[in-house]
Design a protein that fits this description.
The protein is an alpha+beta fold. Helix content is 23%, strand content 20%.
Amino acid sequence: MARYPQIRIELDLCDRLVDVIGDGFDLIFRVGTPKDAAYIARPLTCSASVFCASPHYLQRHGTPQELTDLARHRCLGFAPWLTQSSLAEAFSLEHLHLWDSQFISNNGSALKVAALHHAGIVLQPRALLIDEIKSGALLEILPDALPDPRPVNMLYPAREPMPLRLRLLIDYLSDHRHELDLPA
């Protein structure tokens, strides 16, 4: 924005699947392997997830040692996993028992807050939880049972000519992804 002050950025943070063109977006970020050939997908980074819980929760309920142990625990559910997530194709979400979860949200930050307040075990991107892991407010568990890291792509419509503002943003994000503190 400092380099191109005449360009306006409107950032919409939502966890629903949007249609780049139909919903009026120039660019979206999508975790997982894109399936729609109508868009150009440009790799940006990868997203690795972790299982975490508060020390208080683990002290009170015990620490699961394997995925099957999650059946005896409170797993916090990410709502899109129930209907539209590509994670389910590569990782069995059945272990999380989301159908009887006490707390489900479509927002990862809300799930993090619930985990910090001892509500249960959360599976979310490491980048979202890293500060809480470093401080000890959340503890990583089940390190050998994690889903594989998933690609994060920038998706944009294939149109010619591409608007200059979009080209500049895509190039900037691609060239500076390490400076933007995006996980590798």
